[in-house]
């Protein structure tokens, strides 16, 4: 189980003063920089003289940039560089208190390094592997001193990333873990203790998600650009999954996933065939100049257009004219959507099951606009004008002349079908009918009408005024001009539209909720704590919130409902909701809204 780590009592400085780094690729060079800047003597070792020279040049350039940015003085830079020496002779590790190997992800290579080190280093020297995919236990078992072997998993780029996973096998001595933990803290890192299984915490959760995104793209469900934009804008991630795979290296991702699948036999970890195809073709991502995207040159991060790049004009054809919009519902989502349309200049009819509910929803919009005025984002006159464009109504009959009707009622298929049957009777011919469902089949709503060609999904994200993403969901029956209409409307309301087909979860939820479910399984299996998993994903994956923070915000009941829909549609055992999540929901622990979910919250 992962546990928070802190320096050992009475220990002021780690005894690990001289450290050898074996393997001077990008990660090894980054670790060398971190160690040297923290005052350690570093012996950089690589079998290639060209690589050792490249590593030194990279270290000189990185520390020069640090001086330019005021993060190092010239004197500190000179000291750091003086503490690094490089060699191609592994015997130089004889002086080291700690050896960190960062060689290619191969048991054969790593075990050979450890066997050679056994004959070179002192008995008390700690041997650490930087693997993120292979079994630390298996590597330790092949060593003459397995109790001194552990995992020390830095994240790329090592100088910038705070997370370090300290990985123990059943053979690892506690004293070795304590010494390495103290070192990590002195380096300014945040160490997390984890057990030995492929992927550990951060990569264990991250690579399953990346694999599903690759499979989604391979199935031609959505374009690479739309998958990446959806996860950036819908989840606040710094990079989309396919761009991240290109950055990590598609061959590296495939290796990690193969190791995870060998251990878990979970089909979600079975590498998507496209990862093998790209790897074997040498299209490994940024480092080769081409992967899911095409880059300016090998090693460049600049994407250049290729045959798969969408046309700039969109080429969707003409849509239908939309001047007025009807929003059905009285909850937070309905109010937010009505506010978005009114801000964009549309006349909005906000209809609910009663006049009172519609007026309450409009009043909620008024409060939202007032907050924007208080924060200086709107003038009082502009806010008043927006509110005037919203007309509340206690009946859907008020939608008779709208050009676009958007429903945002309860996430219940029968409720939505009844509403679409009512809209079919009320709305004029040619009106576009849209559902904001996040998980239900759009086509089922369409079939409740006599005009399924006019029905489409417009999945807004909460809060609608702030979130930029809209998933545009076409069914097999949706007309081309209806699709074009909704894309045009999204542009006018300043939302980023992504296209996807009509299947459970669309893009964002189909990728997000299996990741959240896997995090729950980690806790359920006592592999890691809530706090460590949240910290690992924020520090190691760049997520704005950890999975358990997010689950408590979304609501455990909402999360469970979406996971059940995904499991029912895809029939994959790996998508079955974690029993711990089901138990918490059954106990009424639904997250922040009830004051208790995975964590407890102060009652307001």
TrEMBL record:
Residues 18-196, 325-502 form the 3-hydroxyacyl-CoA dehydrogenase NAD binding domain. It comes from the Bacteria. Keywords: Oxidoreductase. Pfam families: 3HCDH, 3HCDH_N. The keyword Oxidoreductase applies. PANTHER family: 3-HYDROXYACYL-COA DEHYDROGENASE FAMILY PROTEIN, 3-HYDROXYBUTYRYL-COA DEHYDROGENASE. Pathway: Lipid metabolism; butanoate metabolism. Residues 199-295, 505-601 form the 3-hydroxyacyl-CoA dehydrogenase C-terminal domain. This is Oxidoreductase. One of its GO terms (biological process) is fatty acid beta-oxidation. NCBIfam families: PRK07819.1. Belongs to the 3-hydroxyacyl-CoA dehydrogenase family. GO terms for molecular function: 3-hydroxybutyryl-CoA dehydrogenase activity; NAD+ binding. The keyword Oxidoreductase applies.
């Amino acid at each position: 189980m992962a546990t928070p780590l802190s320096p050992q009592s009475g220990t002021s400085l780690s005894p690990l003063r001289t450290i050898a780094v074996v393997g001077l690729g990008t990660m090894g060079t980054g670790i060398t920089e971190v160690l040297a800047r923290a005052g350690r003597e570093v012996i950089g070792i690589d079998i290639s003289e060209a690589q050792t020279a490249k590593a030194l040049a990279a270290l000189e350039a990185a520390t020069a940039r640090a001086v330019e940015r005021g993060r190092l003085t010239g004197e500190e830079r000179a000291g750091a560089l003086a503490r690094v020496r490089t060699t191609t002779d592994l015997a130089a590790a004889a002086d080291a208190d700690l050896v960190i190997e960062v060689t290619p992800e191969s048991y054969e290579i790593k075990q050979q390094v450890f066997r050679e080190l056994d004959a070179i280093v002192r008995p008390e020297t700690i041997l650490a592997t930087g693997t993120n995919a292979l079994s630390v236990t298996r590597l330790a078992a092949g060593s003459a001193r397995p109790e001194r072997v552990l995992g020390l998993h830095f994240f790329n780029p090592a100088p910038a990333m705070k997370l370090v996973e300290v990985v123990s096998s059943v053979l690892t001595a506690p004293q070795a873990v304590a010494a390495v933990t103290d070192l990590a803290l002195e380096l300014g890192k945040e160490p997390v203790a984890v057990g030995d299984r492929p992927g550990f915490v951060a990569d264990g959760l991250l690579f399953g998600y990346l694999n599903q995104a690759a499979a989604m793209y391979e199935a031609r469900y959505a374009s690479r650009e739309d998958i990446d934009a959806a996860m950036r804008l819908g989840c606040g991630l710094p990079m989309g999954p396919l761009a991240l795979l290109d950055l990590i290296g598609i061959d590296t991702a495939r290796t990690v996933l193969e190791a995870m699948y060998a251990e878990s036999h979970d089909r979600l970890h079975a590498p998507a065939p496209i990862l093998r195809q790209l790897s074997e073709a040498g299209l490994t991502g940024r480092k080769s100049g081409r992967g899911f995207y095409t880059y300016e040159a090998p090693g460049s991060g600049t994407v250049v257009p290729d045959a798969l790049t969408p046309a700039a004009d969109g080429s969707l054809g003409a849509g239908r004219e939309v001047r007025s919009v009807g929003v059905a519902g009285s909850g937070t989502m309905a109010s937010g959507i009505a506010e978005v349309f009114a801000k964009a200049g549309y006349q909005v009819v906000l209809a609910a099951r009663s006049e009172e509910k519609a007026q309450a929803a409009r009043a909620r919009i008024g409060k939202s606009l007032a907050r924007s005025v208080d924060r200086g984002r709107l003038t009082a006159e502009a806010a008043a004008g927006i509110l005037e464009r919203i007309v509340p109504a206690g009946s859907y009959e008020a939608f008779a002349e709208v050009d676009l009707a958007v429903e945002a009622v309860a996430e219940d298929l029968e409720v939505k079908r009844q509403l679409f049957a009512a809209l079919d009777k009320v709305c004029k011919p040619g009106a576009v009918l849209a559902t904001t469902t996040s998980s239900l089949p759009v086509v089922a709503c369409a079939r409740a009408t006599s005009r399924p060609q006019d029905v489409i999904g417009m999945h807004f994200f909460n809060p609608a005024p702030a979130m930029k993403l809209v998933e545009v969901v076409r069914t097999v029956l949706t007309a081309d001009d209806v699709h074009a209409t909704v894309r045009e409307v999204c542009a006018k309301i300043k939302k980023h539209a992504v296209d996807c087909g009509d299947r459970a979860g669309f893009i964002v939820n189909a990728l997000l909720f299996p990741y959240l479910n896997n995090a729950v399984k980690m806790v359920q299996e006592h592999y890691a704590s809530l706090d460590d998993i949240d910290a690992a994903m924020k520090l190691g994956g760049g997520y704005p919130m950890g999975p358990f923070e997010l689950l408590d915000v979304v609501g455990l009941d909402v999360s469970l409902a979406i996971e059940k829909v995904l499991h029912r549609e895809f029939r994959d055992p790996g998508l079955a909701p974690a029993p711990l999540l089901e138990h918490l929901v059954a106990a009424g622990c639904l997250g922040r809204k009830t004051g208790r979910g995975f964590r407890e919250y102060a009652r307001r």
